[in-house]
Amino acid sequence: MTESAREGIDISRIFDAPRELVFEAWTTPEHFAAWYGGDAEVPLDRVSMDVRPGGTWSLVIVVPGTEMPFHGVYREVVAPERLVFTLKDATAPDDIEGEIVTVTFTDRGDKTTEMVFQQRGGNLTAEQYAAAEDGWEAFFDALVNRLATI
């Protein structure tokens, strides 16, 4: 696939943590705030999560001089196996649903979990998808660190 034809993001990671714990890190405000944003600050009082189909989520990443709000709606919640939700930032037009994020969690035994992450929507340019993928990779590195502490 050429970079100009890029239409999304696909990332797989293996975590040294049980599937239930990895799912919890995605669905509990204090855990989500600790890793989403990588090294940037996500104040817990700026995180809202109603983790059920049709429920909304929002948060704000704070870097010096800038606030980056993100929000969306949960489409599917199958604990501890799967999450599907929309993702929009402040630059997304109001008339689009946003990107669709699908995350599956597979128990690999020995308290390890395979996470398969997919983001689709076609709302970003190839360059924006590449930048977003780099961001998600940094977030998932922070998730590794968070999982080691809970």
Describe the structure.
- It is globular, with a radius of gyration of 15 Å.
- A seven-stranded antiparallel β-sheet has the order 1-7-6-5-4-3-2, with helices on one face.
- Strand 6 (99-109) and strand 7 (112-120) form a beta hairpin.
- It has one domain (8-147): START domain (Alpha-D-Glucose-1,6-Bisphosphate, Chain A, domain 4).
- The model has no long low-confidence stretch (mean pLDDT 94).
- The chain is built from three helices and seven strands.
- The protein has 150 residues and is an alpha+beta fold.
- Helix 2 (29-35) packs across helix 3 (126-147).
- The chain is 25% helix and 39% strand.
Multimerization state: single chain
Helical proportion, percent range: 25-40%
Largest β sheet strand count, sense and barrel closure: 7 strands, antiparallel
Q: Give me the count of strands.
A: 7
Briefly summarize what is shown.
The protein has 150 residues and is an alpha+beta fold. Helix content is 25%, strand content 39%. It has helices spanning 19-27, 29-35, 126-147; strands at 8-15, 48-49, 56-63, 66-78, 82-89, 99-109, 112-120.
Descriptive labels:
ASHA1/2-like_C; SRPBCC domain-containing protein; alpha+beta; START-like_dom_sf; seven-stranded antiparallel beta sheet; Alpha-D-Glucose-1,6-Bisphosphate, Chain A, domain 4; 150 residues; single chain
List the helices and strands and how they pair.
Layout: E1 8-15, H1 19-27, H2 29-35, E2 48-49, E3 56-63, E4 66-78, E5 82-89, E6 99-109, E7 112-120, H3 126-147
Helix pairs in contact: 1-2, 2-3
